[in-house]
Design goal:
alpha/beta, 8-stranded mixed beta sheet, 15 strands
Length: about 450
Amino acid sequence: MVGEYTFSGQGAAEIAASIEQAIGQGVLAPGALLPPHRELAAELAVNPNTVAAAYRRLRDRGVIETAGRRGSRVRQRPVTTVRDAIGPEVPPGVRDVSTGNPDIALLPPLGEALAEAAARHAAQPVLYGQAPLDAGLGGLARAAFDADGVPGGPVGLTAGALDAIERALVAHLRPGDAVAVEDPGWGSLFDLLPGLGLRPTPVAVDDEGPLPDQVEAALRKGVRALIVTGRGQNPTGACVSAARAGELRAVLQDYPKVLVIDDDHAYGLTELPLHPLAGSTRHWMFVRSTAKAYGPDLRLAVFTGDPVTADRVGGRYRLGPGWVSHLLQYTVAHLWRTQTLDIPAVAASYAARRDGLVQALADRGVAAHGRSSMNVWVPVPDETGAVTQLLQSGWAVAPGARFRLDSVPGIRITVSSLTVQDVPGLADAVTAAVRPRPAARFG
């Protein structure tokens, strides 16, 4: 019993469900200590091994964590509470620069593309048993991969980058395996890994991407996979340089069995060149999402990979969703074929605001980072204090806790809703909220 809540169940699954219900109702808060195995077993009149099995289920699913004799506790961020929920409410009148959403003024018009998709559907509706990948979209994706130096491999589709990453991890890893991830990094990925029963191993990043010595250290510890953002890294804006990619490939040569996943979610938002790690090991995936450049509701990602990985991911997808809607495929194919998105103009627009903010902060003695895409990362000594003071100054920023494992505190600012004229005022507010703190790396 915890407080007024009484756990229930006779089997491991029932007991685990009862504990999850208590977490969902707020009876068990993040960090709350669970009853010892024998104590709960006596209360429920079951074998202690049954309670141990229930706790093991919850631990594998990222709900609780176990620290030996110190007992089992609810994780600070259980999978039932996503990191996007971390942060203050935005009151009326406060400018929200925390969301990570693109500038809607830069999204391409979809009317013509959707009309063409509808016309193709009317002429020949897609029925069960047809090929899951539209040949036109597949050809465009493969040509773009080739242009960016991505190795040859089958092309497939998923409903977004995170969907592809999840399926690649499940195809090769098992609960308990460790995955090397960028830190600071993508909060949704940090949520996903415990939900799959996988253990994130943080790797520090700087403006050029993951640090090779930290990647090598993680590999020596036995990580089974490495996930790298080639450009537009969230939240730091890091972009993997040619030199850094070469260093990382050299490290990976000694670990051919590690799964390497390249995430190119910022495709269309930057003109900085891509230097993928794809092909450095036996199993790999390169995934490219349309959500940031073409709109978050256009849920489609193209991927390629080694034949085994591509076959496993594609085969499992066919057993679940079946395929990505051909209406979406036709829409994206039209956008890519007609080059509806003016990538140089989009990249320049984000760069003017992002680089302007980074420079304005530097002029005020505040270190900030943002080589590409739409975000600026500012390391701070007191994350809560900075977020609170900025809120009082009329700006809502994203607390770094959404994006950190072991790295230093920080705040993320999304420039999408800013104008160039907004930059000086925001820089003044950030400067007032944080102490200047130079940082050569983020970890």
